[in-house]
Please model this.
Amino acid sequence: MENCKVIAITNQKGGVGKTTTTVNLGAGLANDGYRVLLIDADPQGSLTVSLGIRNPDDLDVSLATVMDAVINDEDLIEGAGILHHKEGMDLLPSNIELSGMETGLFNIMSREYVLKNYISTVRKNYDYILIDCMPSLGMMTINALVAAGSVIIPSQPSFLSAKGLDLLLRSVSKVKRSINPGLTVDGILLTMVDSRTNNARDVIESLRNGIGRNIRVYETEIPHSVRAAECSLTGESIFVHDRNGKVAAAYAELTKEVESIERATKNRSGHDWVR
Model:
């Protein structure tokens, strides 16, 4: 039976906390004893830099390299390009070469399945694989949605961010209907929350009472904090950088929510299999 959970962390809007969430959820899961792989699917390499790789363009092997090998049916050394982070999680890094890869994907057969085919070679080694998506709905993001079993959508509690959710949810629905029928939305994660403002409170209430009737909005809300932004400079998670802070507490709660959802899903699947 397949035990690896593949989650795409995505939103076509930039600056909503996708990379921060990928790092800290990954670290939280690793802290709890899970084997975790983080995949940087953004040519900007924000996840790679956030985990301490200061010059991603100098790397010999990256996500673009292994996807190119998949396209050309070349043999890959197991674990090629995967780096180990001191906090117990693995990273498949990205760099500017991924921009060329995305453009090239339009000209090959089965272009939506390249990342999925790569992940199939490594997923046996992990309990969770988290894909940090680029801020667009381009071919790399489609590859991530096809490879994933579920989606987490970070979103700021602002009018424009909330408005953009409709487009993203339609894209997820389209991939589900046409390519990946098992794809689900695990939930919408509210990030950079400043609960002191009326605007944030109004947007959160609207989301929970609107979209929240059909799609989970995580109980956990990630507060706005300068300390969270500092983590990318130190190459570590919030659990190391500010372990007693409010953001670390929030990401610890999110980790528990994600684990709880996965346990419930497996229990339902087990009952269905028995029947």
